[in-house]
Amino acid sequence: MMGWNDHLEEESERQDVIQALVDSGKLDDPALGVAKKVLDQGESSLVGKQVNVFVFITEKYLELECKRCHAQIPVSELVEAWDEDGLCSWCIKMESNDGRL
User: Fold this and answer.
1) List of residues 6+ apart from 35 with CB closer than 8 A
2) First to last CA, the chain
3) Can you give the three-state secondary structure of the chain, one letter per residue?
4) What is the CA radius of gyration of the chain?
5) Tens of pLDDT along the chain (101 residues)?
6) What gap in Å lies between CA 101 and CA 91, rounded to an integer?
């Protein structure tokens, strides 16, 4: 079961990932502006079309499924996954070992 501290840690990691996404240059306006607003004011501050833009950001960058094993990529691995063609850390390791353990 997830405790209160686990929830806070996951939310902090999510904020770190959004900051990394802003810093990465992967976003253009309006997505960049919406991501910055989420960082400054929280998701609850979004209104109207901003909500739709943030849903797009979330689906594209924050809720990734590994393209090899189809597992949900943990928040802590997302930044690396953007640069590794959408692979989780296990599949990156497997590919770098050419499938050998």
Assistant:
1) 18, 21, 22, 27, 54, 57
2) 31
3) CCCHHHHHHHHHHHHHHHHHHHHHCCCCCCHHHHHHHHHHHCHHHCCCHHHHHHHHHHHHHHCCECCCCCCECCHHHHHHHHHCCCCCHHHHHHHHCCCCC
4) 15
5) 445 455 556 678 889 999 999 999 999 999 999 999 999 999 999 999 999 999 999 999 989 999 999 999 998 898 899 888 899 999 999 888 765 54
6) 11
